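Researcher: Here's my situation. A collaborator sent me these components and asked whether they could plausibly form a single complex. I don't have experimental data yet, so a predicted model of the whole assembly would be a useful starting point for our discussion.
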Amino acid sequence: MQSRYFTINEHPQGLPTRELFQLEALELPALADGEVLIRNSWLSVDPYMRGRMDGVTTYIEPFTLGEPLDGAAVGEVIESRSARFNAGDKVRHMGGWRDIAQLPAEQVEPLPEFDVPEQAYLGVLGMPGTTAWVGLNVIADMQDGDNVLVSAASGAVGSLAVQLAKAKGGTVVGIAGDQHKLDWLESKGIKAVSYKGKNARELSAALKEACPEGFDVYYENVGGDCLEAALDNLRVGARIAVCGMIARYNDDAPAAGPGNLAMLLIRRARMQGFIVFDHWEHHVDFVNEFGPRVASGEIDYQETVMNGLESLPDAFLGLFSGGNQGKMLVKL
Amino acid sequence: MQSRYFTINEHPQGLPTRELFQLEALELPALADGEVLIRNSWLSVDPYMRGRMDGVTTYIEPFTLGEPLDGAAVGEVIESRSARFNAGDKVRHMGGWRDIAQLPAEQVEPLPEFDVPEQAYLGVLGMPGTTAWVGLNVIADMQDGDNVLVSAASGAVGSLAVQLAKAKGGTVVGIAGDQHKLDWLESKGIKAVSYKGKNARELSAALKEACPEGFDVYYENVGGDCLEAALDNLRVGARIAVCGMIARYNDDAPAAGPGNLAMLLIRRARMQGFIVFDHWEHHVDFVNEFGPRVASGEIDYQETVMNGLESLPDAFLGLFSGGNQGKMLVKL
């Protein structure tokens, strides 16, 4: 059995080019005891993967040059030498960026049986959904009625964060770019603010207009001007959950930070970075609570789907140009 | 009875000049029922007062132009129309920046009776000491053995923070400027790092050399390059207590923030601003615990004393040029 996979042969500087990604193939060995063979049907691309391309350990191991990239994927077991899985089982695992994955069974988990499309376990009921929930509830300690600001509010994580926040009652404001993303936010009762054509000061003024009382919680996915504008609009005792700073992931050199960090002092605010994998103990509870709400349609999740293994690099690069609404996925 | 006091008649831009401060006098009215008259013996000048000169409400009300400035002071009751105080009582209150204060008795507190000089209640056993304690223990949740970094480590707050941290066991590093401050830190078993002549990158390298394992806690008094260098040297799960950012208090316009804020994410770190007045419920316990340790000489506190009411503006301005070691005080 052959596996086709993407790899990189050098560490990118700045925004990667399409040419960085090499499609390769290898002949898989026979399954060892305890291993399973999986035909992937859905592959995830996520902003955090950019950090793994730099060759330095940050909060996760870097990718190895010349080896298959990896990431979350959903697929079907086609051969098993483990008692835990049979051919035909639907599973989730980290052997993504390839069509066929060969993995030890202990690195593979069966999909829960909610009435949702299988790719939901890569988005709303996967890492992005859990990230939205942990950031709001564990890191930002969101309380009923809190005013919440979310950047990248129509992204995989942000589009769930705004809905989870909205359900708890306060004013929820989402920052996004394109008109169709703003429209989607407004359709969910979220006040939508566009960052396009605005510097930090103008964005700050727009946030103030959307929520004059200020924010108790800021769910940070972007950094840069969004952070600076948010810092201006914090209420006393505000909490900032730093999930990502995608505005900076492709910077060649460090860009200056916000000039108004002293707002943390003036507003006695807290700003905390987190990685969902540190809080994965909440994942099962999250899925059990939200699985039925996703199945019933109560929670609206967006997907942007590209087709075919060859589209993986474009899907990944689209994350940095606002090319996705909701979860970016590749369907095989 | 006449009271001589300092006031300001305009809001300063940038670093105030000596001429901003006007010495005035007023004839005090007869004491009303419930009031006391106090002859001040020690006056406090503190960095937070700069923020009160801008005419905008931040975390504390701004000074009123033309009215007496205020701040912490220690003195002796010379006349009382309150059952709580008698002439001769030693007291602490907020009617500083003047020689004679007339106040309602409920705004005045008697000095505790530890065997310490009375001005200690403006420093090591006053607001600065409580600030050091709250920042380390409440905000940064310092644990035994934590490695701790303190900026402005020979200042009123920093010089106590390093000693409180050192008593809990880990490596403690203090950032300061002048050689005599560095020497004092080393004499207390603190690793001293000079910021002088170093940019953020060089300061970061010096901190790495002083504590290669990185810091669990950063006690932030300065901002600017100190913050940037500290962010580079955080351990996973680090906590930053933002007590002050004196490097920025006199900026005319916002200066850019650190370019490496994403370290909060990479190290899953928390950064929290605080104002000691929000946590004043800890003050009495703090004084009762630390009063005996100060009296016994176990805790070494530094003072920089200027003499006479007229020296108040110079004492205050000295805070921004590194003119003080430990608590800056004016003795009347």
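Model: Some features of this prediction you could bring to your collaborator: The mean pLDDT of chain B is 94. Chain B touches chain A through 34 residues (CB under 8 Å).
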